[in-house]
Amino acid sequence: MALKTFKPVTPGLRQLVIVDRSGLYKGKPVKALTQGKSEKGGRNNTGRITDRFRGGGHKQTYRIVDFKRRKLDLQGTVERIEYDPNRTSFIALIKYTDGEQAYIIAPQRLGVGDKVISGNQVDVKPGNAMPLANIPVGAIVHNVEMKIGKGGAIARSAGSYVQIVGRDEGYVTLRLSSGEQRSIHGQCFATIGAVSNPDHMNASLGKAGRNRWLGQRPHNRGVTMNPVDHPHGGGEGRTSGGRHPVSPWGKPTKGKKTRSNKSTDKFIVASRHVRKKKG
């Protein structure tokens, strides 16, 4: 998909750059593969705002995407490629030989009419899924499971992928886009190829209203507030009060390490932070 620009007949169109979706299916999704979706507006189950600057936005229908790919050794045909408002990547409608339909994350270079299959030993081609242990070293994969049978969790957003760099005692080492190298069990499934819509990162919204359509409300910075409202507030001109960036409640932010899951530290072969220091 290419990027699309517009003649600057209005201020909003002057800087607008969007992904050209003219090649996608223009109808509605398969109703049996959708479900309702209620917007939370950034609020938790007690009604308190836990994620600020959320709310409004266009109504969306959730598409049920198959992240597990456990329909083994049954070939499917790509019926169409669709837009999904719930994610940055495109999705592909697959029709299997037994008549069942399912949505999967569409990888790059997968088109209408292509065949995909999931199994223990299948061809290494975009859209096919199999255990990491059976995928050759050096291959590019996405929708990677972290726990056997749980469904893909890594590399699901537009243009993302991870690379297989090694194997050791039933585990496979992956290099993530952050530079981190991580060991994952060889029986976890992954899909061959990189995720579709890599041009998403080059899009420009062009106006504040388009941000509101996405459910994102205006974000006011701490330095623009008064001292009573934020630790960064007050002062003549822009000043953060001589302290490192913090949240409105004084908690460190912007670079402060928050990882505390020591039980999975053993699976991190090379930290992304070490790579940054060397660079």
Quick overview of this protein structure:
The protein has three helices and 17 strands. It has 279 residues and is mainly beta.
What can you see in these coordinates?
By secondary structure, the protein is mainly beta. 6% of the residues lie in helices and 23% in strands. The chain is built from three helices and 17 strands. The strands form five sheets. A seven-stranded antiparallel beta sheet has the order 9-16-10-13-14-15-17, with helices on one face. It has a four-stranded antiparallel beta sheet with strand order 7-6-5-8, with no helix packed on it. Strand 5 (76-82) and strand 6 (91-96) form a beta hairpin. The longest helix has 7 residues, at 272-278. The two termini are 33 Å apart.
Note the beta-strand portion.
15-25%
Q: How does the major sheet shape up?
A: 7 strands, antiparallel
Rg over CA atoms: 22 Å
> Unreliable runs, pLDDT <50, ≥5 residues?
none
Head-to-tail CA distance between termini: 33 Å
Query: What is the chains' assembly state?
Result: single chain
Tell me the total number of β-strands: 17
